[in-house]
């Protein structure tokens, strides 16, 4: 199978690029291949073609499942024990940097519009159009998906992401598209979990105490800020739930317009967060283990959700 798809997969990805379902299945194939054959059979050129196609797919596609499968395939290709690791790791860095840079460009343009000033310095913000909203949401979606399998903390986007979080909950929706909320929360979550993973590795390797203490302090600050934001979000969902109509006395129609129902993705993510960090059980050795969200993957030694 590997020998066949090493030669044919790039062309198949090109042929079915407009079909998300077929594309998802095709781009997952390298996860099941013997990647060492790229080296032993001198197929590095086809590997380069494959990596370039994955880059193009991530760049163009808007379907979350396709992008997620690309992220998982990149993870498989970048196994440190694999002979193709160096080449694939460079390609991975190119792809993740592309996703992060597009988010930065989209959010900078969005913020410039709503915070713009005239020549006299008087605030004169504009309302972003549908394309500008889409660019922010789509780029955030890709960042959050890539964060699931790949550590993006070296891109230093925490401050920007965390700055987005309260704006997603602002009464003035123009501050930040509300549909971006789930991706901001998810990306911040993975930033915290990857930081923990890096800190644990540093401690295990006997890293210098001052550096470890400083890293732990920074992580603690981010964790507390994130959990505070998470709590605020949950509180707002409770306040603006269906019971608002039942307890608000008169004006039912007006109050009903304020009822906010989280979509399935947000509700599922919040539920998994609670299970991971609140409803945990103790193993026999005394360690604590959660349920599903953010477990370490045995193959990648990093955060995964599924």
Automatic annotation (TrEMBL):
<dbReference type="GO" id="GO:0003682">
    <property type="term" value="F:chromatin binding"/>
</dbReference>
<feature type="domain" description="Cohesin subunit SCC3/SA HEAT-repeats">
    <location>
        <begin position="1"/>
        <end position="194"/>
    </location>
</feature>
<comment type="similarity">
    <text>Belongs to the SCC3 family.</text>
</comment>
<protein>
    <submittedName>
        <fullName>Putative stromal antigen</fullName>
    </submittedName>
</protein>
<dbReference type="GO" id="GO:0000785">
    <property type="term" value="C:chromatin"/>
</dbReference>
<dbReference type="InterPro" id="IPR039662">
    <property type="entry name" value="Cohesin_Scc3/SA"/>
</dbReference>
<dbReference type="InterPro" id="IPR056396">
    <property type="entry name" value="HEAT_SCC3-SA"/>
</dbReference>
<dbReference type="Pfam" id="PF24571">
    <property type="entry name" value="HEAT_SCC3-SA"/>
</dbReference>
<dbReference type="GO" id="GO:0005634">
    <property type="term" value="C:nucleus"/>
</dbReference>
<dbReference type="GO" id="GO:0007062">
    <property type="term" value="P:sister chromatid cohesion"/>
</dbReference>
<dbReference type="GO" id="GO:0008278">
    <property type="term" value="C:cohesin complex"/>
</dbReference>
């Amino acid at each position: 199978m590997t020998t066949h798809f090493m030669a044919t997969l790039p062309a198949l990805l090109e042929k079915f690029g407009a079909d998300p379902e077929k594309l998802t299945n095709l781009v997952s194939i390298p996860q099941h291949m013997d990647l060492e054959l790229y080296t032993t059979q001198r197929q590095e050129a086809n590997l380069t073609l494959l990596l370039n196609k994955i880059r193009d797919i991530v760049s163009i596609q808007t379907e979350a499942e396709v992008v997620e499968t690309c992220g998982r395939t990149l993870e498989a290709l970048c196994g440190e024990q694999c002979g193709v690791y160096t080449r694939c790791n460079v390609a991975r860095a190119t792809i993740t940097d592309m996703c992060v840079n597009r988010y930065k460009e989209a959010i900078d343009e969005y913020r410039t519009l709503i915070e713009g000033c005239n020549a006299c310095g008087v605030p004169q913000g504009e309302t972003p159009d549908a394309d500008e909203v889409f660019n922010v949401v789509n780029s955030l979606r890709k960042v959050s998906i890539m964060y699931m399998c790949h550590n993006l903390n070296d891109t230093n986007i925490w401050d920007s992401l965390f700055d987005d979080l309260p704006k997603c909950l602002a009464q003035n929706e123009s501050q930040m598209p509300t549909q971006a909320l789930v991706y901001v929360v998810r990306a911040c979550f993975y930033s915290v979990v990857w930081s923990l993973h890096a800190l644990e590795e540093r401690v295990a390797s006997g890293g210098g105490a001052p550096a470890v203490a400083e890293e732990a302090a920074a992580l603690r600050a981010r964790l507390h800020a994130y959990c505070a934001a998470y709590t605020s979000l949950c509180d707002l969902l409770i306040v603006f739930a269906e019971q608002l109509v039942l307890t608000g006395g008169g004006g039912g129609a007006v109050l009903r317009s304020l009822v906010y129902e989280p979509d399935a993705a947000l509700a599922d993510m919040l539920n998994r967060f609670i299970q991971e960090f609140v409803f945990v059980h103790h193993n026999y050795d005394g360690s604590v283990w959660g349920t599903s969200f953010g477990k370490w993957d045995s193959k990648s030694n990093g955060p995964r959700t599924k």
